[in-house]
Amino acid sequence: MALQARTAVVSRVTNETKIQVSLSLDDPEEAEAAKKGIVPPKDASHATQFTPTQQITVSTGIGFLDHMLHALAKHSGMSLAVRAKGDLYIDDHHTTEDTFLAVGTAFTKALGARQSLARFGRGDAPLDEALSWAVIDLSSRPWAVINLGFRREKIGDLSTEMITHGLQSFAQAADVTLHVGCTYGDNDHHRAESAFKALAVAIRTAVTRKTAGEVGAGDIVSTKGVL
Questions:
Q1: Residue 223: inside a domain, yes or no?
Q2: Please, which of 98, 115, 173, 202 could form a disulfide with 17 given CB 3.0 to 4.6 Å?
Q3: Domain count, the chain
């Protein structure tokens, strides 16, 4: 029997930002709800990529944030649409924070009951001279330890402190335990991008579902029996 597609559509509206997210953890051909929400805008940014198995389009008003979310979606196997309009005339804080909170909320909503999951995932990713790693636990216990060792204040128009805070916000909203680190790297762009790719690989492993006949199929992967 085919597994039900895991999709979610989320809107996060505050006095400072308006965020819309559509997310699918599975093949978009099996995810009609999310597929309807993933439509390339007329002014599609570089962070738009449609293939037979993935549909990604990200537009936040912050180019480097778009680039990181594009990489996260691409290498995790997710289909993802993000539309964000925030108070960038102030700075990048509210837009970045609320975008990661909305993506995290969509992620946990799409995940649904945490059954039949691999649960844990680790990813390692190089980018030229930089090497990063990430470990995720779909634990329902939000926690994040992020250590990327940035040396610059900003990459493009994105503050490096907001990369760290954004990942912390994602972990909080997604109800996951998350550890991400950059082992080494001379270039902060490479440090950040390798970290997001490592996280993507970790997510792809953790959300894998056990199918009928496999050990863990239908189970909550916890000695407590709950997540």
A1: no
A2: 98
A3: 1
What are the contacts of 51-58 at 24+ separation with CB within 8 A?
Answer: 53/27, 53/28, 53/29, 54/28, 54/78, 54/79, 55/28, 55/79, 55/80, 55/81, 56/80, 56/81, 57/81, 57/82, 58/82
CATH number, domain at 65?
3.30.230.40
Is residue 220 within 8 Å of 140, Cβ to Cβ?
no
Using the structure block, give the residue that is written with the tokens 């936040």. Answer: 60
Helix (H, G, I), strand (E, B) or coil at 209: strand
pLDDT tens for the chain, residues 1 to 227: 567 899 999 999 999 999 999 999 997 554 454 445 555 555 666 799 999 999 999 999 999 999 999 999 999 999 999 999 999 999 999 999 999 999 999 999 999 999 999 999 999 999 999 999 999 999 999 999 999 999 999 999 999 999 999 999 999 999 999 999 999 999 999 999 999 999 999 999 999 999 888 888 889 989 999 99
Amino acid at the residue 139: S
pTM above 0.85, yes or no: yes
10: which strand partners?
Answer: 21
Answer whether residue 43 is part of any domain: yes
- Give me the domain span that covers residue 98: 7-206
> Distance between the two ends of the chain, CA-based, in angstroms?
25
Residue 214 within any structural domain of the chain: no
Tokens of 62: 């912050």
Handedness of CA 22, 24, 27, 30 (dihedral sign): negative
In a domain, 222, yes or no: no
